[in-house]
Amino acid sequence: MTENLRDRVLGIFVRARRDLLAPPIFLNKVVVGDSLRISISRRGLRVELPKDLLEREDFEEVLLSTFRHALAHAHYCPYDVVTMRELLKAAYLELNNWDMAYF
């Protein structure tokens, strides 16, 4: 991966972040691989880009839309499966009722 690609990805991400008024997020890793994967966590933003996407004329538009989707998801659905399960267990311990805990 070249610094130019990293800078391009960061520029597109900053644009998406500003569009959604999201807080700054550190760009941790950009790799070229087989699929498009975006991960936003405490460790920062990790991006895997497929080679064929890099060759497309609409690369920036596709990546911008993907970043917007990932940021919106992180904002509106911030819990991963592990966190959700821990919250469910905590609710059950308080209520002693699985039906109420799921609510």
Question: What sequence of helices (H) and strands (E) makes up the elements?
Answer: HEEEHHHH
DSSP, total strands: 3
- Tertiary shape: elongated
Count up the helices: 5
Protein architecture, described:
With 103 residues, the protein is an alpha+beta fold. The chain has a single domain, classed as Zincin-like. The radius of gyration is 18 Å and the shape is elongated. A hairpin with a 2-residue loop joins strand 2 and strand 3. The mean pLDDT is 90. The protein starts with a helix and ends with a helix. Helix 1 packs across helix 3 (59-76). The protein has a three-stranded mixed β-sheet with strand order 1-3-2. It contains five helices and three strands; from the N terminus they run αβββαααα. It has helices at residues 3-19, 51-54, 59-76, 81-95, 98-102, and strands at residues 27-33, 37-41, 44-50.
State the gist of this model.
This protein has helices at 3-19, 51-54, 59-76, 81-95, 98-102; strands at residues 27-33, 37-41, 44-50.
Layout of SSEs?
Layout: H1 3-19, E1 27-33, E2 37-41, E3 44-50, H2 51-54, H3 59-76, H4 81-95, H5 98-102
Parallel strand pairs: 1-3
Antiparallel strand pairs: 2-3
List keywords for this structure.
103 residues; Zincin-like; three-stranded mixed β-sheet; 18% strand
